[in-house]
């Protein structure tokens, strides 16, 4: 770690020490050290597969089959992932009462796995560890979906109650954002004294609006990301380094 980054980590330690109602806003970058690729980095998920948007999922059985094939392939590749240093540091800050909540764009369930309770976590893009019927909202476990899928030559099953399409409980491109999650994220952001944007390219709207909202409300904005973001100029502290290394340095210095 070079001297500039070390100095920035000391600044981060000071900010974390004074934080009283912080919000951590996390993206795929916090989970890359857990072996889950992000979207936009080289080797990221987008360089392999174009995402299936909501309209395509709704209108095409073949796209639904493909979406489930990808989901089960991910299970094999990343199913055993455990929380990384960033997840653990944030869980600690929450326990110490410095963070009021965590708002995540991730769908991997690793904040919960690090011990963060549901009432402190807002999942803006949902969760890929279970599924729901898009028409009636009935919940389905992935094991059940998988059994049906395999038993019917990799055909996506429909809802037992209403015949509607079953999809992981995630928010796809073109799918409306969950209203309750947006409201909770907005409330946390409006009330925070420090907003930590961690491992997000901050290009996906409306999620990327939160750092701006926090700043407008007078919070201090900290950005931790390996590469520059559009909001770096607006931030009070920017650290371009590995998230795990930064939290390790900031919480032990
Ligand atoms: P993104 O891929 O657009 O951005 C991730 C950012 O993190 C990049 O700028 C990258 O440089 C940075 N990064 C990667 N590893 C890092 C590390 N170890 N230290 C510091 N920085 C690092 O992801 P996004 O902004 O979260 O938005 C894209 C969408 O991707 C989200 O909607 C999310 O739902 C979805 N997604 C989620 C997961 C997951 O749940 N783990 C994985 C891939 C994509
Ligand atoms: Zn249904």
From TrEMBL:
Presence of the UniProt keyword Hydrolase in the record: yes
Active site per UniProt: 125
Record's keyword terms, sorted: Hydrolase, Metal-binding, NAD, Transferase, Zinc
EC assignment: 2.3.1.286
Gene3D superfamilies attached to this UniProt entry: 2.20.28.200, TPP-binding domain (3.40.50.1220)
Residues that bind Zn(2+): 133, 136, 159, 162
This protein's record includes keyword Cell division: no
Superkingdom of origin: Bacteria
Domain Deacetylase sirtuin-type: 1-253
Single Gene Ontology MF annotation: NAD+ binding
Record's protein name: protein acetyllysine N-acetyltransferase
Species in which this protein is naturally found: Starkeya nomas
